[in-house]
Amino acid sequence: MRQEDPVATHAAHAAPDADTRAMRRAIELAARGLGSTSPNPVVGCVITDASGAIVGEGWHERAGGPHAEVHALRTAGPAARGGTAYVTLEPCNHTGRTGPCARALADAGIARVIYAVSDPNPQASGGATTLRAAGIETASGLLADEAEAGNAAWLTSVRLGRPHVTWKYAATLDGRSAAADGSSRWITSAESRADVHRLRAESDAVLVGGGTLRADDPHLAVRGVEGAAQPLRIALDTRAAILPTARILDDAAPTLLVVGEDADTRHLTGVELLRLPLHDGRIGVQDLLAGLFLRGVRSVLLEGGPTLAGAFLEGGAVDRVTGYLAPALLGAGPAALADAGIKNISGALRLDITEAVRIGPDLRITAVPVPVTPATKEH
After folding, report:
1. Catalytic residue ranges
2. Prediction pTM value
């Protein structure tokens, strides 16, 4: 199994059930770090001894803390020697706030390393090369799709240089986000609303636009999730028209107001501002995401209304859609999504549904955009 990565990938895909079970466990462990590791990735690690028994487990618990491999090695102790490490991301090869994991695995006497996804970060990649140079068998690609999905926010931010964006919305089965009179509380169930707090807790930031800010006076902080780190609450308010009494300005969570370059903010004190240029009176989606990335934001939960969602879709900046569908019909009222620049059916953004589950009486659907290829353009 000691091969170069392209060949090792095929070997990993043909791995026995024991390898698959161990890697799937590592993916489960990685998910425990969601919401607490940014701007670092979530990573899980399982270590088995020479006989194949699990002797160590770990995950990256918080930014600046020990990496998953270090936690697992500490648990395994001497039993790691001659064993196998299963890691959801290629072990790092650099010294930052922590040491290189590739070297830690080699020093512990690990004989084989299987990782799911290669590290796209040029500052940390090369771990597999270091492992092979130390005489350790390596293979990549085992359950890569599952590991990629679990680490989508960090991988997107590294590859694209902008935060990963999840658009969350709630609607009736006929796609209405509110009734004809504008009332919308509550379309979905208490169970769905609680689940949204979980999504917030897993995100670096929660974003709404000026329309939602004025109509709903949202709070956006996480409630009911034990041990959750509060996300950054972001409001787009081009003219800084927000009232100082707005709920988003309390001290329950940090808040960032995104305003136009020339907005008068003298009535706002003690509020963090991000000033951006306006284009036809609006803040550009890419300008916003670039500003947030520089601030360290790696994942955004878009909770704004249909207009903001349409702007993000038109800008090609929605990486995942999470829709909560209530078993109700309205027949009139605003749609969940406004103009996204799509003029005909051939331009529809096609989605791949990755999950559909019941949440109380509602249905939660998670989907990701289907990559556009010449073949998909023709249909």
Report:
1. 69
2. 0.87
